[in-house]
Specification:
By secondary structure, this protein is mostly beta strands. The chain contains 1 helix and 11 strands; from the N terminus they run βββββββββαββ. Strand 4 and strand 5 form a beta hairpin.
Length: about 120
């Protein structure tokens, strides 16, 4: 089973940047499409970005396009989320997730999830 562990979340001031990391433990990590989601208190889970298994295709939710960037390093079995110009509305628990089926990624039904990392943005 692929196991995912997020890191890098912390409390920052508005306007700051953060880079979240998601480390995979499975030897077949490079076969998995990966995505980032977040969930704020009282809100539904929100899709942010996805990257295909090879790391040569990226898809972003319109609300974060141009501000958040997803990337991966399959040699290190890590996927990243670079977040710039953070605002208080970005405060949420951020999750990475993976699945070898792109359709499940698009549907938000990825089968492997990390535990989440808290990002808090203060004004």
């Amino acid at each position: 089973q692929v196991q995912l562990v997020e890191s890098g979340g912390r409390s920052v001031q508005a306007g700051s940047s953060l880079r979240l990391s998601c480390a995979g433990s499975h030897q077949f990590f490079s076969d998995y499409n990966m995505a980032w989601f977040r969930q704020a208190p009282g809100q539904e889970r929100e899709f942010l970005a996805a990257i295909n298994w090879a790391g040569d295709y990226e898809y972003y939710e319109d609300s974060v396009k141009g501000r958040f960037f997803i990337s991966r390093d399959n040699a290190k079995k890590v996927v990243y989320l670079q977040m710039n110009s953070l605002i208080p509305e970005d405060t949420a628990v951020y999750y990475c997730a993976g699945d070898d089926n792109w359709g499940r990624v698009l549907a938000g039904r990825l089968r492997t999830w990390g535990q989440g990392t808290q990002v808090t943005v203060s004004s």
